[in-house]
Amino acid sequence: MGWALRAGVVLVALAIGLGWVLTRPASLPDNFAADHIPDPENGALVFHAGGCASCHTAPEAETDGAAPPVLAGGLPFVTEFGTFYAPNISPHPDHGIGAWSAQGFARAVTLGVSPQGQHYYPAFPYAAYQHATPGDVADLFAYIQTLPPSDAVNRPHDVGFPFNIRRGLGLWKRLFVAKDFVVATDDPILQRGRYLAEGLSHCTECHTSRNALGGLDRARWMAGAPNPSGKGTIPNITPAVLDWSENDLIAYFTSGFTPDYDSAGGKMAEVVENLSQLPEADRAAIAAYIKALPAIP
Amino acid sequence: MRLSSLALATFGITAMTVAAFAASHANPALEGPVKARNAQMGMISYHTGLLGSMAKGETPYDTATATAAAENLAAAAEMNRAVLWVEGTEQGAVAGSRAKAEIWSDAAGFEEKAVGLETAAAAMVTAAGTDLEALRGAMKGVGDACGACHKPYRGPKN
């Protein structure tokens, strides 16, 4: 073997090895939420703040009733990378997440890695959920265990090459899942609003535009984006464009009424359904955060 | 083959012409209900706005004004739907309409949501005559009723 060929083989092996390391699914420390006693009541609030039911209930399910949501999955997400189907996350032991450990659940939610060690597609907003506190994640898991099980079978995603290679998502995460918050603040109310808006309630997943690979443009934070469901646009909610008062925002999150007394439409109507179940202080915190966003025309 | 594609093209052009004609030369029998519905929505929005600005603390609460607004809201919600929600007036068929075809294909579901607004508006009449706290509490019911119907039965803004 010539030296060039040998060097080539070594280089290729190095590249594969480096790729393997760079795309490796991350794990959580063993003591994640270890000392926390799970509180399903707070978990219900985390569940509403996170909007879990909006994506994980079956598409034909009624969500505005008082009955507890059945997290059977099945809702399709049509994207330029393929069509994703929300999975069953009801506590069914075989078809849902009933047999999962709290640790496995936390890894899924905050790192986007399945109990089998596979990357999830970012249709699941773990880039936002990564900010969730260990206690909130543990409480959420405890709450989901109290919901009715569903035996609905998960529908496989319909994703073509190269996006069907899940390992590649490790690289995507390295490039686009930034660990830090976008808005810097020391104010406790704004920090709470930021925790909800950038974290649990994942406002930014729709209100911020993305690059060609689906990474969020942090320089145009909450400045609007094309509608992921295809029709129209998601509005810019920075103060450069949105002139609603804090009171207007709180009323909108509570009743769905805009300052013109039109009602929230599309996916935002579901967001309002979720936010209206939070304590008023949380809606006020999100409103304060939105008013404090850097103005981006 | 050639004949059938020609026939198809002719049919297509005819259909498009008819559609364009329908859009530009509105049919008064179908345009009327749409205008009336939009006016009804305007009535609902105006009176909800009076109540909402009290709920937000932008205007002071006063029983008489709140009751008047709530009663008109309830009256608007109770308008007989038979002559307003006329079939064939969906979005795309009549200018200014955002009504989805599901209003007619799922008439029972639509009726349920419409009755939901009647119920919420009736509760608002009681609440508005009680005090500001009650009014604030009833706003969510009215908002939920609006959203519960708009979500499945209202089409997107253009």
Short description:
The complex is a heterodimer of chains A (297) and B (158). Chain A is mainly alpha-helical and 297 residues long. Chain A has twelve helices and five strands.
Question: Can you walk me through this structure?
Answer:
The complex is a heterodimer of chains A (297) and B (158). Chain A is mostly helical and 297 residues long. Chain A has 2 domains: 28-179, no CATH class; 183-297. Chain A contains 12 helices and 5 strands. Chain A has helices at 3-22, 40-50, 52-56, 102-111, 126-129, 134-144, 169-176, 188-200, 204-207, 246-255, 266-275, 280-291; strands at 76-79, 82-85, 158-159, 225-226, 233-234. In chain A, the strands form 2 sheets. Chain A has a 3-stranded antiparallel sheet with strand order 1-2-3, with no helix packed on it. Chain A has a two-stranded antiparallel sheet with strand order 4-5. In chain A, helix 2 crosses helix 6 (134-144), helix 10 packs across helix 11 and helix 10 (246-255) crosses helix 12. The longest helix of chain A is centred in the first third of the chain and has 20 residues, at 3-22. The model of chain A has no long low-confidence stretch (mean pLDDT 93). The radius of gyration of chain B is 20 Å and the shape is elongated. Chain B has 158 residues and is an all-alpha fold. The mean pLDDT of chain B is 88. In chain B, helix 2 packs antiparallel against helix 3 (63-77) and helix 5 packs antiparallel against helix 6. Chain B has a single domain (27-153), classed as Four Helix Bundle (Hemerythrin (Met), subunit A), CATH 1.20.120. Helices cover 73% and strands 0% of the residues of chain B. The interface between A and B is medium-sized, with 22 and 23 residues.
